[in-house]
Predict the structure.
Amino acid sequence: MRDVAAVAGVSVKTVSRVVNQESGVSEELADRVSNAVSLLGYRHNLAASSLRRAGGKTATIGLLLEDVANPFSSALHRAIEDVARSRGIMVFAGSCDEDAARERDVLMALISRRVDGLIAVPASPDSSTLLSEPQRAGTPIVFVDRPITSGAADCVAVDNRGGSREGVRHLVAAGHRRIAFLGDAPSIWTAAERYAGYADALSWADLPVGRHLVRRNVRSSAEAEKATLSLLAQPDPPTALFTGQNLITMGAVKALQHRGLQHSVAVVGFDDFAVADLLDPAITVLAQDAPELGRLAAELLFRRLDGDAGPARHVMLPTSLIVRGSGEIRVR
Amino acid sequence: MRDVAAVAGVSVKTVSRVVNQESGVSEELADRVSNAVSLLGYRHNLAASSLRRAGGKTATIGLLLEDVANPFSSALHRAIEDVARSRGIMVFAGSCDEDAARERDVLMALISRRVDGLIAVPASPDSSTLLSEPQRAGTPIVFVDRPITSGAADCVAVDNRGGSREGVRHLVAAGHRRIAFLGDAPSIWTAAERYAGYADALSWADLPVGRHLVRRNVRSSAEAEKATLSLLAQPDPPTALFTGQNLITMGAVKALQHRGLQHSVAVVGFDDFAVADLLDPAITVLAQDAPELGRLAAELLFRRLDGDAGPARHVMLPTSLIVRGSGEIRVR
DNA sequence: TCTGCCCCTGACAACGTTGTCAGAACAGTA
DNA sequence: TACTGTTCTGACAACGTTGTCAGGGGCAGA
């Protein structure tokens, strides 16, 4: 900037004014400065700028995701990026792998970089650092997909419980009475909610929640496949499966295909996935609108950055049941 | 930091020393400082630090992707993140949507933020800004998935042409002589290479490249579906399809299912995708190792950041043919 | 001609750090 | 005791920018 000023024969402050498009610089000087800028290939240094500027805004937000490579996370990421970009803001994204220690590391790295705001999918609902550290630093944080129970904070999530209830009722309506549940670890809030919805629907239909029909610690597609095989090998096997997550759905379908039961055992899965409609039968799912979730979270965050100091808001989005075939297989 | 110094009764420089874990601070003072740090909840400001520090490193790299939400891009992203994190470096990722103007915007935003290095999937092979701007700023850049032709630069890519050749030969070996090609816009380097591999294989087998069997501007799954239907409606329809990208593969499969031809028309696709093995028939694909691609790109970049000033390197990874059924359907 | 006002412009300090260097305190040696 | 060397500490300037404020010049009105 000093060099530009020297070439243009003005002061650095005038260069600063031109670069920031402030008013009150004569056209002639502005032109001289612009020319010097392109001559020297000068690029504005945002870090130095935000250091001095009021509020020290860095035009940067941080994103704590489960895994940037997972389709749900990356759909959130993209939606948030789009909102951020419309305001000239860049996004740091970090993967936490459902691991509290890793989550804390990423959080601290983001705070060190003085992000203006944070959006997080919390690994655990009772993380205290996720609330206290941003608060201490004066950085607003919005939670997506899962709330946090250790304090009040903005949150955008889907109606996991209601959606699951609807999905399981759909199976009941097809005549099923032995409906199995396969889900992620109950420590994950969404998995717990989805199980609760399953239990709701069964009790609404006056059906018992059979322990032998429930698998609540399924962590991967391969585990889902094994768990499904073990469910099917029982004396009184389920006639329908409710799967609590897309990887689990895929594993379960694989197991059904393996046993040649894909046309006789019904499946409803939580979360849509690519080509679910190309399978035979096509898979009935409860879809959640991840882009919308991300967009809303970003807008909540930017409202905070714009000065909104109102009470914490909770936004709940509905899921939608997409009927494709696998969930409409009637009981034999 | 000034506050911490006041509380600990030392100078700011001593606080700086403790925070950076420099040697040569007596244990007593270091303890006093540490206590003051946690008492006040002080957090190191990396932006200010990098402003002053030699070389002005920001411990940050930038990633220019096609779309953070696309599975290939996000797999790259994750692999790069993992290498970066092991060095305490955060990653900015931006989506360019194959659009040169958008790419330029993201690039400039990253340069303004003084990223230490860049990794890019270039939208076009002859972008000059993508080389000149980082060079001017002294920021090393590594290209992934596609090279850039307008100058010498590090690049990590897959053997698109060789892989496609292998895939098409596989179809030829199953007796096919009318093999269609469906691919993305030829302006995208990978699409052009894959088409070249297709043409190579046909000429190797002394088969003509029939214009009526080639569709080179397919941009989405829906377009692929339409294009496939039009190919099949011809008087002399193809007996096999070679699809140049996973969304195209999905669209083509959908069209085949629609016409009930999935068991009579062979398909080999470039790029693997989730549940390709659950379809009926399961889809034979040429898989590329995206995480490895990302890892290698990140390591090349960090080698540059560590001072390697050698000539530009090109790394080429092989693809692997995964035989699953759809590509082994023999000609009737 | 002088006063007052507005418009431009630039000098200077400050943002939160760290590199440089000099000084203080102490121990060891002649 | 005087000198040297080592270890620890702090004052100061600087990184690249912008907020603040004051000064210079031009113009209208008295």
Chain B touches chain A through 49 residues (CB under 8 Å). Residues 1-2, 12-13, 16-17, 19-20, 44-54 of chain B lie near DNA strand C (CB under 10 Å from a C1'). Chain B has a mean pLDDT of 95. The first helix of chain B runs from residue 2 to 8.
